[in-house]
Amino acid sequence: MRILVVEDEVDVARAISRLLGRSGFAIDHVVSIDEACAVARVHTYDLVLLDRRLPDGDGLGLLPRLRCEQPGVRVVILTACGAKDAVVEGLDAGADDYLTKPFDSDELMARIRASLRRSGGSHAPPIKVGEISYDPNLRDVVINGESILIHGRELTLLEVLLRNCGRMAPREAIMEEIYGFADNVQESALNSLVMRLRRRLDDRKAGVKIHMARGVGYMLTKADK
């Protein structure tokens, strides 16, 4: 899943990006409304974390333009403007949630998960392949009946492969979901990530195989018995 952080305070943006990155989200960061509009025309986002006090105006001004580009995107306001009138104004403007700074990391992650679960109005059913059951709403992985902790980009990779089970997922599409546009990614990074995930799944006897088509992409299938 891909999240856009619209925040002009570099230290705050860096802390948010680290927090979200540990949970497996691909993060893009911009510092203004105009930059946010520009990247929203190029990339698709699941959620936007939006500050209000930006160099080129109130972040609420981004909402109608953002909804025009990506009608289904979830927007969480994350700002120091915590007065009751400001919160009401933000929600009435179309934000899905409103959180004030300074924020608690656990609460921020809980609100992000809640907003993503509300996307589309219903919960997506678990994806089951081999001995794996993956809940995309909770981002919870169960293998052979045991809940398994898989963090960061490895979890995002597994989610992409499970969603495309039986179909070749192109390298470019996988990279788009795993890495932010500012990440300096070596060509071998995805190969290494796949190797680690394959080893983890094999160790857990997950009953799946990850196939590679060199230069094309990867595909996950149920393993032959």
UniProtKB/TrEMBL annotation:
Residues covered by the OmpR/PhoB-type domain: 124-222
GO BP field: regulation of DNA-templated transcription
Cellular compartments per GO CC: cytosol; protein-DNA complex
Domain Response regulatory: 2-116
UniProt DNA-binding region: 124-222
Pfam family membership, one: Trans_reg_C
PANTHER family from the UniProt entry: REGULATOR OF RPOS, TRANSCRIPTIONAL REGULATORY PROTEIN CUTR
Name of this chain's protein: Response regulator
Lineage: Bacteria, Pseudomonadati, Pseudomonadota, Alphaproteobacteria, Hyphomicrobiales
